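Notebook, student rotation project (T.W.).
Task set for the rotation: take a protein with a known small-molecule partner, predict the structure of the complex, and write up what can be learned from the model alone. Partner molecule chosen: zinc ion. Sequence and SMILES entered below by T.W., checked by me.
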Amino acid sequence: MKEGKRGALAALFILVLCLGVATGILAARITEARRVSAPVSAPESVETAEPAPEPIPSVSPEDCGHPAYENGVCVLCGHICEHPFHDTEGLCLLCGQRVVHHYPGGLCSCGRTPDLHTTLLPDRFYEPCEQAGSIRSWSYETSVWGRGLPAVVRAGIYLPCGYDPAQRYNVLVLLHGLRSTEESWLTTPLELPDGRFYEMRWIYDRMIEEKIIEPLIIVSASQYLYTQSDNFKSSYEQMAAELQDVILPYVAANFSTYAATGDPDSLILARDHFALGGNSWGSYYTYDTGMCQSLPYFSSFLCFSGDAATAWIVESLESERLRSYPVRLYYSAAGDIDVARKGEEGCFYTVVPLVERLHDGENAFFHICEGGHDWGTWSIEIYNALQFLFP
Ligand SMILES: [Zn+2]
Ligand SMILES: [Zn+2]
Ligand SMILES: [Zn+2]
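Predicted structure of the complex:
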């Protein structure tokens, strides 16, 4: 009994001694590392040989107070800053790096609201950007709508500058209107009122470069099928099926998205990271193929200068099948002298009051800018909408 007690006392003494020594070593290492990371000015007039680099201290992130960051990485322990807080300029309060504002409910945690434009964007957004994304062409086989003949539909896929398969990216699918193509949202040269030509992708490049938005993948798809003499518009049912069964699975399987695979279950799980939008007829299709038929796959919708059957939208959103799917964002917009202004605006203000989970100014926004039914308007509104888009 006595022997046992003495043994326990000895063990306790050794344990305390070890702890003391370990704490001492750790403190010494931290002090040493701080001394190393602090700028030391060598005395003038004394020639000193280049000192051998000191080994990087092995302080674990749990024991580190992260006293200083360099490029978002703690100089002491290598911890990568998660940027938990930032100021209204978008600078992280811990590491000083620029971060992207996010506007859930229309307001960023720093108190900032989105930078909404009502006139043409500053000139630099209509100019090529040094950090340019790349465009991949892709096509898939389908059938001539309503005629049962085989056909090929093209799509363009924008990958942001520095696309890295090790990262995950949000995906925006955009649909165009009449007399446009799958290149219009990306590379078609468009003309400004002053005669300058620009491409829509320059806006995305610039917004990503300036950290106004996170890098994303943009798929410019088409609900039109062009043949030599005329074009066919897909039925809403066929386009919805192509979005769900062809376009999204292809993107998820071939690029790094938030969906683990291209299977429906994985796509639906990642629905907050997939958005659908379009201009003119592309807006009709966003309502009819997206909101009404593909809500499990997309949680955000951008509707520019379109219209749709409001009764069908309300009925679909409130249906037993779709009621459990939240809508992250419904952004509707048009130009002030846009021929589709009345339709788009009427649609928004009919649908929102009738759908319980849509709230004007929280997850539903209607915006008017100066412009007609043209790409000038859509260049402004895609800039506005992209800021709200993803979590
Ligand atoms: Zn640290
Ligand atoms: Zn940070
Ligand atoms: Zn912010």
